[in-house]
Structure formats: C-alpha cells, structure tokens
Amino acid sequence: MIVSLAARQETDPPRTCFVVGPIGDPYSAHGTPEREAFEHHLGIFEQVIAPACERHGITAVRADGIAHAGDITEQICRHVIESDLVIADVSGGNPNVMYELGLRHVTGKPTIHIGEAGQLPFDIASIRTIRYQRARSHLAGARKEIESALEAGLRDGFEILTPARVLRGLQPVDGPSASATSENEREEDLPGLLDDFAAIEAGLDEMSADMEAITKTIETFGALTEQSNTEMLDLTQANAPMSARLAAVARYAESISAPAGELNAVAGAFAERMATLDSGVRAALGLIEVTPPEERGEGAAEFLEQLMTLDESAHEGLAQLGSFGTSAADLIRLSRHLRKPVKDISAAVKRMTSAITCMGEWADKARALARSTAV
C-alpha cells in the first residue's frame, strides 16, 4: 500500500499530499453523472483524506485546488512526482488516475491506494488498498485506516513496491540478498528508465508514421499539380476554349480529392494522438528532469532524440503542406470543383499547426534536458 524511494529507509516526514482521483465536473447540471461524481469524490476528499492527513500535520490538495497559475497538466505531473505523499483513489480504474499512479510508482515515493468497494481495477489487485463504502460509518473507518497507514509509515519507514524496486535494481524487503544475484543478471533484468512509457513510445512511432504518410501525400499533390499545370499551359498555348480549360480543372480537382481527404484524415489522427499523448509525454519529461543525469540511461536519451526528430520532421511537413495549401487556395477562384479538396487541405493545415505547437513545447524541453545530460 505504501511505496518509497528506498525500502524501510529513514526520511523526513511528509508534509504535502497530492490526492489523485476522479474529480468529475462541478459545472454540470445537478443529477448528471459528472456532477454526482464531483460531489462524491469531493466528499471523500473532505471527509476522509484531508482529515486523516491533517492529523499528522500533512496538507492535502487535489488538482482543482492548485492555487498557482500555469499549465495544469504540467502542474499535475509535478505534484505527482514531487509531493511527499500521494493518496490515489483508484475507484473505477479511471485512465488518467491509473497513468498518474503508474508514474508515481516509478518514483518510489510514499503512495496510499484507496477505492470504493466493488469498483477496484483488476490491474492493481495485488497492491493492498483501503476500501470504503458510501455509508458515513464506512467513510469514518476508511479515514482511520489512512491515519493508521500514515502512522505506521512515519514510525517504521515506507516500504517500496515492485515498479520502483525493479527500476533501481533493489531486492524485495523479505527476498534474497543482493549478493545472491549476480551483477550480470541484475543488469539483464533491470529495465531502462522509460520502460513504463512503452505506450508513449508506441504512440510517437505512430505519429512518425503519420508524418511519413503526410509527406507522401504532399509528394502526390506535387506530381498531380505539375501534371495539371503542364496540361493547362498546353491548352492556353493552343488557345483552347474555356470549356476545355474548365474540364481540365475538374479533372485536376477530381485527382486530388482522394489525397486531400486522406491528408485531412491523417492530420486528424496526428492531432488526436498528440492530444492523447500530451500529458504522458510531459510526465515522462518531468520524470527525466527529476532523475539525475547519470542515472537516466540510454532509454531517456533515445526518447529525447525521438521528440526532437519528430518535431523537425513535423515542421518540414507543415511548411510543405502550408505552401501547397496556399497555392491550392488561389485556385478556388478558377472553379467550384476545387472547393472540396482545398477545404480538406486547409483543415489539415489547421490541425497540423495546432498539434505542432504542442510538439514544439515537447522538443524545447527535450533539447534542454539533452543539454543538461551532455553537461
């Protein structure tokens, strides 16, 4: 139930507690699931978690209680990583909660799991969790259990769970001694710093594939446009009637319609992956930042390089796409046939521009961390 940087070590007593859990929507209408979720979890915080922490001189805060202005995603990641203590309500296995909990586990700092009976996710069933029910008497019991867990941790030290233990090559508290395992075996079994971010890396690989698809589509546009320009030049030199020129434009519009639709779809997928990965990538960068450079390993360096390379590729693709989009937009005046493909191209440019702005922030942070590693 409790994890820390080193097994049963003596540390300064925790003074800050970040509460991870579903929050709901306080602005939803009364009676909606979102509003009920907000009121329920606010009640758990106010009646169970905060009082238990206060008894031991610990200040508890939720994400919606962060007072400082700034990027809320970055703030949450920093609280998850840096807070003395985290209490996580895992009820229902909320994806954001589970991700933040995984990040916290890797840091090895004290963490307590709580959850509503019957709503506990299977993934972490092996980790002891303080269970509660919504009845007032059960909430009081849960508060006392948290108080007892804190008292035991403050008195005896906090034990480390598997994620942080494996990451640091530590042995189980009651397991074999370090001498029982050879150095080669430990190095072979020890995962890199970013093993727990495999899903992020897979997502970044998919984004790279999206960029390759976008580049190929732009090349297709270029070839089709060059072909159309040659045809239009021949028609002009032959003083062909407007009907012939209009037919040529219609053929060009038809030829680029499918690639334009595909481009818009790929750009949309690229932007969606960006939105999905944003909090995870920022959390990964935050974890690398708080890890001493000498302990980061090759996995961290490869991750940072991947972010920087992807950013460069995306900017090149956007420049080509933007240039083509501008040229295509000028053609709208020639014929209504071009409106649909140009609309798709313009939408793709907007999606890419928004996504690449976020990616640039990743890359800037990656470059700064890479420089600190080099130093």
Label this structure with key terms.
375 residues, alpha/beta, Rossmann fold, Glutathione S-transferase Yfyf (Class Pi), Chain A, domain 2, 2 domains, 5-stranded parallel beta sheet, 5 strands
Please outline the helices and strands.
Blueprint: E1 16-20, H1 33-55, E2 59-62, H2 72-82, E3 85-89, H3 95-107, E4 111-116, E5 130-132, H4 136-156, H5 162-167, H6 183-189, H7 198-237, H8 242-290, H9 297-331, H10 339-374
Helix pairs in contact: 1-4, 2-8, 3-8, 7-8, 7-9, 8-10, 9-10
In short:
This protein has 375 residues and is α/β, with parallel strands linked by helices.
Describe this structure in words.
The structure is a single chain. This protein has 2 domains: 16-180, 3-Layer(aba) Sandwich (Rossmann fold), CATH 3.40.50.450; 195-374, Glutathione S-transferase Yfyf (Class Pi), Chain A, domain 2 (Up-down Bundle). Helices cover 64% and strands 6% of the residues. It has helices at residues 33-55, 72-82, 95-107, 136-156, 162-167, 183-189, 198-237, 242-290, 297-331, 339-374; strands spanning 16-20, 59-62, 85-89, 111-116, 130-132. A 5-stranded parallel beta sheet has the order 2-1-3-4-5, with helices on both faces. Helix 3 links the parallel strand 3 and strand 4. The longest helix has 49 residues, at 242-290. It starts with 15 loop residues before the first strand and ends with a helix.
